[in-house]
Amino acid sequence: MKEKKLRLLIIESHRKPEICFSDKLSQKAYPVLQVESGGDGLKRLNDFPPEAIIVNAASFRTNGLRICSWYRNRLPDTPIILIVAEDEPIDGAETVDVVLHLPFTVQKLINRLRTFEKTRKQELLVEGGLQLNLKTRMVSYGEKSAYLTPRLCRLLQAMLETPGATIEREELFRKVWDTDYTEDTRTLDVHISWLRQAIEEDPKTPKVIKTVRGVGYLIEP
């Protein structure tokens, strides 16, 4: 499977196209969502969960630190790149992973993104078209992406560790819930249903997470 490039949320104003990067990154095959304000981006997190965030503060004539703090609070594990004007002093940028002062080329920005991509690759479980980032708990399959709860992430991880093999319900429940009590595993069915909603094109007729009646579950991405 060809490695997917990072999904980028880019907060920048196009009033200054000469210092904008969203179009250039789109041309480099990055999946990009460009918004005009930090608030607009926050509203889109559920339908476009980003794997990296770029705050082009120079395009807004601000230092961007407040916007960065919003996203750090919401997405503590997602890398943030802050772009500021050449002469903009930056103090107290603890919420930012990288600060770039203009001017610079789009290639320099891509090089920074590749650093995050290398780190992400070490944290990924990939099987077929299914990707699970163990650090951010983001799963993607086809056109669908979603953030998982810690429990759902552990459940999918357990299934991805043995793709193509049927896992008995009791074994799966014991591993994910860390318990020896397996008399009532109905909560497992509920969590499987939630996983299907996150990744299946049609959760009612699942093609990835299949039920093996009387035994358990089988994952075939």
- SSE order, one letter for each helix or strand: EHEHEHEEHEEEEHEHHEE
CATH superfamily of the largest domain: Response regulator
- Tally the helices: 7
Main sheet makeup: 5 strands, parallel
Which CATH top level class of the largest domain fits?
Answer: Alpha Beta
Any idea what the CATH architecture of the largest domain is? 3-Layer(aba) Sandwich
Low-confidence segments, given as residue ranges, are none
Helix content: 25-40%
Mean pLDDT figure: 90
Number of domains: 2
Strand order of the largest sheet: 2-1-3-4-5
Q: Span from first to last CA? A: 12 Å
Would you report the number of β strands? 12
As a whole number of angstroms, the C-alpha radius of gyration is 20 Å
CATH topology of the largest domain: Rossmann fold
**Given the C-alpha coordinates, what overall shape results?**
elongated
Descriptive account of the structure:
This protein has 7 helices and 12 strands. With 221 residues, it is α/β, with parallel strands linked by helices. The protein folds into 2 domains: 8-122, Response regulator (Rossmann fold); 148-219, Winged helix-like DNA-binding domain superfamily/Winged helix DNA-binding domain (Arc Repressor Mutant, subunit A), CATH 1.10.10.10. Strands 2-1-3-4-5 form a 5-stranded parallel beta sheet, with helices on both faces. Strand 11 and strand 12 (216-219) form a beta hairpin. Helix 5 (150-160) packs across helix 7 (186-199). The chain is elongated and about 65 Å long. The mean pLDDT is 90.
